[in-house]
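Reopening this one. Same input as before:
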Amino acid sequence: CCLVGGRGAELALPEAADPFVSLFAESAGRVLVTVAHGDADALLVRCAENGIPAGRLGVTGGPELRVDGITLPLD
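Same output, byte for byte:
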C-alpha cells in the first residue's frame, strides 16, 4: 500500500508478537485497515461489538515506511 499510494507509515508491532509471523505469515487471516484519524476509535468500538480482535499499529504519512525502528524509504 505504501509503495502504490506513495504514502509512508510508522508502525509498532505488538510486543508479544513474533515480527516474522506478524509481517509475513499466511497462516491466519489478517486485515490492515486505514481510517481517518478521527474515525479510529469508532472502528475499534465496532470491532469489539462484533467480537473482532483489533488494535492500533500506527499512523500513515511521510516519505518512508518505519516498522519497529527499521526505516525503508519509498523511493
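So the earlier flakiness isn't reproducible anymore. For the record, Residues 10 and 32 are 13 Å apart (CA to CA).
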